[in-house]
Amino acid sequence: MTFYNSDLQYRVTLNTELNLFIVFDKKDDNHFATGVTIEKAVQELKKSA
Question: pLDDT above 70 covers what percent of the chain?
């Protein structure tokens, strides 16, 4: 599923083994971040941009 933020577009997946959300930049699958919540993962993705 693709989500839209005012700054970027991203996809969210859930790693059920680690209980972490993984957020991928829609334009670049090599640019991703993880977090215990979707919001935390998106914040981390923004920081690394």
Answer: 86
